[in-house]
Amino acid sequence: FWTSVRAAELRGYDPTGKTVRDFYQGDALAFVLDNYDQGVAHPSGIVDFSVDIAADDRHVELETLFLPLSADGKSPTHVLVYGHYIEK
Predict the structure, then answer these.
(1) What is the SS3 assignment for 78?
(2) Residues 6+ apart with CB under 8 A from 44
(3) For residue 1, how many other CB atoms are within 10 A of its CB?
């Protein structure tokens, strides 16, 4: 059962109300912002298949979905981000 509390535990922080710039710097920030840009540019979103070790060190993030959302069905106003984790 997945909850936002569990997601925060895996990340090592709760991103609620924060921006991407609050958590990333340098090359990592550029990489993450590029994923958001690509997700917004593709109406069906994108999947980033980069593998990343979670902050709790027991889980691995296999892929991340970036899905653009739009109130008017045309212009994205939000991006839903979902990370798929497995236990090591």
Answers:
(1) strand
(2) 67
(3) 3
Tokens representing residue 20 in the block: 């991407």
How far apart CA 8 and CA 28 sit, in angstroms, is 19
- The pLDDT, as a whole number, for residue 2 is 52
pLDDT tens digits for range 38-86: 999 998 999 999 888 777 778 888 899 999 999 998 899 999 988 888 8
Give CA–CA dist 32/27, Å, rounded.
9
Where does residue 35 fall: left (phi above 0), alpha (psi -120 to 50 degrees), or beta otherwise?
alpha
- The answer to pTM > 0.85 is no
